[in-house]
Specification:
Length: about 120
């Protein structure tokens, strides 16, 4: 004669007694940590710290790449600004890429009063 499945646990195909035993085993093991568990937790923590440090370093480097800010005046172009800071009109795209969100889709449409970031080459 087979045992009858009882309660909610019967819906999942396990007998209530089996589930109780499984839960009890997990409770017994839950409070214990092996050296391997502790070492893994330490390694995970160190890895997270390294990621945070790398992000902070990347932010510092990104800030260091900004040489100056330039406020556009009437009559200026990205080429003329490039000539002023880089001594090369051909490097205007470097300025455009650093300020694309501000300038928009056309590098020829800068406006007086815009404050542009002048990145380091």
């Amino acid at each position: 004669m087979t045992e009858k499945k009882k309660g909610l646990f019967g819906l999942f195909g396990k007998k209530e007694e089996e589930v109780k035993k499984e839960v009890a085993r997990k409770k017994d093991v839950a409070g214990t940590s092996t050296k391997a568990d502790i070492d893994k937790a330490k390694a995970d923590m160190l890895l997270k710290q390294k990621v945070v440090v790398k992000r902070k370093k990347a932010e510092v480097v990104k800030k260091a790449e900004v040489v100056k800010k330039h406020t556009v005046v009437s009559g200026e172009t990205l080429s003329s600004i490039s000539k002023k800071y880089y001594d090369d009109i051909g490097k205007y795209m470097k300025i455009y890429e650093a300020n694309k969100d501000l300038i928009g889709g056309d590098p020829n449409l800068i406006k007086p009063g815009q404050v542009l970031v002048i990145p380091k080459l």
